[in-house]
Amino acid sequence: MQDLTQKVPEVRKTLESMFFKFSDEITASLTSILTRENFILIGPPGTAKTMLVASISKLLKAKWFYRLLTKFTEIEEIIGPIDVVELLKGNVKRIYTNSIVEADFALLDEVFNASSAILNTMLTILNERVIYDGGNIIPVKTWTVFGATNRIPDEEELQALYDRFPLRVFTKYANPEETADLIKAGLRLRREFDTLKPIMTMDEVKKLNELIQNYIYENMDTLVKHISPIVASYLDHVVISNRTRVKVPLYVVSYLTVVGIKPSEIDTATIRAGTLKVLKYLVKDREDLSEYESFLATHMPGNLSVLYDLLSEIKALIANNALSIAKEKLKEAYELFEKAVSDPVMYRFFQVEIEEVRSTLDMLKSQV
């Protein structure tokens, strides 16, 4: 297991070196692959969603299937056409080659725009990894189904399909001031994509999935002890189905593997940190995402939660022109910040949050 776990962080680092500010998308995608879970990217077109799945497929030596879905898309475009030669003989058979049936990964773009026939077929693929074709039950080899959409469906008939994508990330356009860095990264991405070589194989992915599941069963009591209280508290903010809650330990251990935590390194601190990070991928909509950010601010380990409260207090003091008191509180905040940065677990998991705190501290310092 050790050798395999070392390869996954290499895949993640390779992808992060290629894509501009795509850490959540990359980490969640790889977590979904290790868990054999369906995953959806929600956001506007032109945010590199397709390129991400194509790059992962290259790095994992995986066969992938892509289709942009509209209400005019035919079912044959997804599961394959009828074999005309066999039809002339009186036999109704399909050619599954180059369809979703034979792919390791599938990316269905604008998945909620499909016809009812395709949506019904997709449900059985997402749920059971089979299709019902005439009187035959056809196994679907697809390991992970990726969805992409620019909207969360309001229609009741689409909720069942959306629920079958339990891991979710919201993508967005880069900010205007990031345009130069985005262009440079995009130009590099085009060149690097053509030269990508596999780091892992799908056989290794499947083996690692099996090993992770065995680890979870062997360490079930410890994992549940530290994960369940966090999830239970989170449920006051965000609704998570029973089906998804049961899988949270699998998500957490897979996430830890993706970020480079070996089984021998998993302890209370990493389990709690991994759980807090994974909960971001279980939100339903952007309102839930705001709830998650609030939850994270009050549940981060060590000094970070205290720091968030202290920053709010300093902002209030500055707003009320109590600058001398604000200056003393700011000194206290910097001391707490240095302790947070020196904690290796804290920095490893919450580097983005730490950098945000650093930026806020420097901004407040300039005001006092």
From TrEMBL:
Domain AAA+ ATPase: 35-175
GO MF annotation terms: hydrolase activity
SMART domains: AAA
This enzyme's EC code(s): 3.6.3.-
Top enzyme class: hydrolase
UniProt keywords, alphabetically: Hydrolase
Designated name of the protein: MoxR-like ATPase
UniProt source species: Pyrobaculum oguniense (strain DSM 13380 / JCM 10595 / TE7)
